[in-house]
Amino acid sequence: LLDASCRRDYQLTNVRGIFGPLMSEYVFGHLLSLMRQIPLYREQQKQRLWQSHPYHGLKGRTLLILGTGSIGQHIAHTGKHFGMKVLGVSRSGRERAGFDQVYQLPALNKMLAQADVIVSVLPATRETHHLFTATRFEHCKPGAILFNVGRGNAIHEGDLLTALRTGKLGMAVLDVFAQEPLPADSPLWGQPNLIVTPHNSAYSFPEDVAQIFVRNYIRFIDGQPLDGKIDFDKGY
């Protein structure tokens, strides 16, 4: 619907506000599992092996969120709950609730050098296309964990694989991809330090969508401005 070749002679709205809690659950579910090495202990249980491993908590770690809208703010608040320092990157760089500091995109490289956890919730726009390439990964903190729950176009998948294989990144958790479904022959499937999920970090539950639609329908028939209106030029 947002492609330049599509018609724009109508009002298009989104369902902003319902995905933040679900995506926050997704990000921190995976993050806590990785930080506390839960998959390793499950494997050890199969072997009846009693062996403890060192770990680090989330308190004091730096969380960098790309995109500071409704979803980003939910993730930020969850990060603060765990005692994390939360940084944000957005087009405007405006202050947002839950963030310690928010920067504009030109500051991204500097922020990556500080981030233990990077979460992209960016939409698919011209500015976000292949935002993460080999050059960008060079600025990442060794051992950093990268999440993408926004759109797949933000990451160059070949360069990501190289970064994971060479230690530029410690781990990646991807819920979105350049091509979906992810082809069976994609090398992403077999990368040990990469978790693949089938674009399910936040479902559109009918009961949630219906409430937003009803509110906007009432506003529409009353001639009032609609909530969550899409800007075709911005792409979100």
Description:
The protein has a seven-stranded parallel beta sheet. The longest helix is centred in the first third of the chain and has 16 residues, at 20-35. The mean pLDDT is 96. Helix 1 packs across helix 3. It is 31% helix and 13% strand. The chain contains seven helices and seven strands; from the N terminus they run ααβαββαβαβαββα. With 236 residues, it is α/β, with parallel strands linked by helices.
Percent in strands = 5-15%
Low-confidence segments, given as residue ranges, are: none
SSE run:
HHEHEEHEHEHEEH
Largest sheet, in brief, is:
7 strands, parallel
Helix proportion of residues, in percent? 25-40%
Tell me the number of strands.
7
Read across the widest sheet, the strand sequence of neighbours is 3-2-1-4-5-6-7
The best one-word shape is: globular
How far apart are the first and last residues' alpha carbons, in Å? 11 Å
Mean pLDDT, as a whole number? 96
Helix tally?
7
Given helix and strand content, the structural type is alpha/beta
**Global Rg:** 19 Å
Topology record:
Blueprint: H1 20-35, H2 38-46, E1 62-66, H3 70-81, E2 85-90, E3 101-104, H4 108-112, E4 117-120, H5 134-137, E5 145-148, H6 157-166, E6 171-174, E7 194-196, H7 206-221
Parallel strand pairs: 1-2, 1-4, 2-3, 4-5, 5-6, 6-7
Quick overview of this protein structure:
The protein is an alpha/beta fold and 236 residues long. Helices cover 31% and strands 13% of the residues.
